[in-house]
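Q: Given only this backbone (198 positions), what sequence would you predict?
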């Protein structure tokens, strides 16, 4: 799980473990991934690493197991629309770096992308279009990838269970070629019964 320090990334790690999975929790925030791993040290291995660390990604790909495995990427443009291009570049770099290992293990990538609210509807539409183009382009080059576009309602703590369930339903059957589709969540797409964050 890349982006394991994000609240949704953390929830996804714990859900995967509860389903019997083994999770490598990857995030640049070392304290957060160590804290997460301490909850289930038998099933969660912490890896403090920035996605800009090309050697780290190469090492991760080289040590991938042969069993069907998947990578879940929790991505968020931290500085809003201004950082959208950098975030998409990071997603592209990460998934391309791991593409060969995923294909060899019959796995796939699922990107959970938090849409920045700062720019309003136009900015959200632009982000959705950019992610759809990126996933489609990556799928055309052989990368097994789909994405969940998470709008503000999906980022409330009351929605995390449903997000995890949706992500699991998308990720676990993806041990086959996928087409680079993007499922919107939390606005005009998948409806959520989310309560405001406490």
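A: Predicted residues:
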């Amino acid at each position: 799980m890349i982006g394991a320090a994000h609240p949704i990334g953390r929830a996804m790690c714990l859900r995967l473990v509860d389903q019997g999975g083994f999770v490598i929790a990857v995030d640049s925030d070392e304290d957060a991934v160590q804290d997460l791993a301490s909850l289930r040290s038998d099933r969660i291995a912490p890896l403090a690493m920035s996605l800009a660390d090309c050697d780290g990604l190469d090492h991760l790909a080289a040590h991938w197991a042969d069993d069907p495995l998947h990578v879940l990427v929790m991505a968020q443009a931290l500085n809003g629309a201004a950082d959208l291009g950098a975030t998409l570049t990071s997603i592209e770099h990460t998934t391309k770096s791991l593409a060969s290992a995923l294909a060899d293990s019959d796995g796939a990538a699922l990107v959970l992308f938090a849409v920045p609210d700062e720019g309003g509807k136009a900015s959200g539409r632009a982000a959705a279009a950019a992610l759809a183009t990126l996933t489609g382009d990556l799928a055309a080059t052989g990368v097994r990838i789909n994405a969940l576009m998470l709008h503000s309602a999906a980022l409330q703590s009351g929605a995390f269970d449903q997000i995890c369930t949706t992500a699991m339903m998308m990720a676990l059957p993806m041990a086959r070629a996928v087409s680079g589709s993007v499922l919107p969540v939390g606005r005009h797409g998948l409806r959520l019964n989310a309560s405001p964050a406490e």
